[in-house]
Amino acid sequence: MNRKSASFWNMPPAGVRFLIIVLLIIGVFFRFYNIDKKVYWHDESFTSMRISGYSKPELKERLFDGRIITVEDIQKYQRPNPEKNLTDTIKVLTQYSEHTPLYYLIARFWAQVFGSSVAVMRSLPALISLLAFPCMYWLCRELFGSSLTGWMAMSLIAISPFFVLYAQEAREYSLWAVAVLLSGAALLRALRINTKLGWGIYAATLTIGLYSHLLFGLSAIGHGIYVLITKNYRTSKTIIAYLLASLAAVLTFLPWAVVIFIDLTRFQRWTSSTTSRNSLGELVTLIKWWLRNLNNVFFDLHQSIEPFDPIHYDDPFLIPLVLILVGYSIYFLCRHTSSKVWLFILTWMGMTALPLVLLDLVLGGLRSTAMRYLIPIYLAIQIAVAYLLATKITAISIRNQRQRFWKLVTIGLVSGGLLSCAISSSAEVWWTKFVDYYNPPVAHIINQANYPLVVSDTTIPGSILSLSHLLSPDVRFQLVTQASMLEISEDFNQVFLFDASTALREKIERELGGQFEVAFQGYKFELWKLENNKGIGNKHRLIFPLLP
Fold first, then answer.
1. In this predicted model, what pLDDT tens digit does every residue of 449-484 receive, in sequence order?
2. CA-based nearest residue to 436, from 411, 464, 410
3. Residue 495 in contact with residue 455, Cβ under 8 Å?
4. Are 521 and 511 in contact (CB under 8 A)?
5. Which end of the chain is more exposed for a tag (fewer CB within 10 A), N or C?
6. Closest CA to 386 of 130, 145, 150
7. For residues 135 and 340, what is the distance between their CA atoms, to the nearest angstrom?
8. Alpha-carbon dihedral angle through residues 438, 444, 445, 449, given to the nearest 10 degrees
9. How many angstroms separate the first and last alpha carbons of the chain?
10. Distance between CA atoms of 433 and 264, rounded to whole angstroms?
11. Which long-range contacts (C-beta less than 8 Å, at least 24 apart) are formed by 313-320?
């Protein structure tokens, strides 16, 4: 790995420099533009609930008791308040140990200082995501000694529709991405200078990574494999320093590891599956998911009318082109860089992908299709593509015709990313919000009603939390855990039944009579309306079932 004598932030040629700076500015803009427009969905609502010190069982106990409550009563459990302190937040986080606590503790302090609105909660991960730019540049400088590759990689991640979407997600994914890039750069620097300070910095970045996301542990294992291979498995001062740095990080993470050990059932549930993927058809399904996800890193032009079926093959032209580009980028990387460079990228990608893929193939499931679990792979892919483009568009040895071709490829990637970000930034929902995809139209229907009541016995309280952010203050809720608890008040002009059980629906039918009619229908989704036959006001009953 060579180092150029130019300064660390050495800029590329003037024309390329202008384009890259513009892309970085646009990338920052898209991370904050319409930041509160998309539905604040199930997972994000749980973020707000947990940092406020409330658990899911406590939420159900307090809200699902049959009382008539307001939107404000529901949102009380999604913001810090005097009833719960930091100790309560930590206690709740230990009950969900699969989510390491660093991001949630930062978010707790963030909400206490700036408030808990949707825009404020999402602005934290958006700001954290900006740290990925210098970290990406540093990693590429350590890896290639190339200023242009670093700037190219920054510009690609800046306008990647996938990374823009998750920069606006009130979850830990932006922090995880930064930790992956930062720890990789720190490792390469420690290997290069081999000083106590260098290894101390690496140990610190490992600790940050472990506390940012549990799957960061796979990246840490990849680091170990890389160090052992490059040092020919021989004991040396470098390997000893690496082991000591890793040990220090593990010891720092030990308190949370104990919490995880106490709550192993959560991990057993995460790795379990009700079916085994042995058939050819199921393997094809997985492959379609992987291809679509890879495409979404660069091009994400479809909001998708089928949010619960992301394997819908809606890019038959783009997906093969992206697959060819990524495949050739990895080949080009292996062909034209030293083993220390391409081995770092391959161990990084392999240790992230293989465990999840093997779990899906052996035990069944769709872990490897969740893009948020594969963030390190997509970062590595961006680096490989950036190296290919930076090399091709500046190479003197290739013909002008070929150079123009690669410039067109670069323009195509940039244009696709910008168009994707522009389209998704104006949408209320996107595939990342799939659980609560239909909440906006549902909220619109409820808000149009005169003094409405929403009744539910849902087993997914996160959807109630999500829906509350879209409703008018005059909407009332009546939440129960079983149909026998329900006593419908006659004080409301319209009553809506959200995510209802059959027993609850039948109870209303017996008491009010009438026939249900479909008022709204989506993919595996229906909204029903029941006219009241008892003449109490001018009431309507709507049924809103979610997926079973």
1. 888 888 888 888 888 999 999 999 999 999 998 888
2. 464
3. yes
4. no
5. C
6. 150
7. 19
8. 150
9. 54
10. 28
11. 313/288, 318/416, 319/291, 319/292, 319/294, 319/295
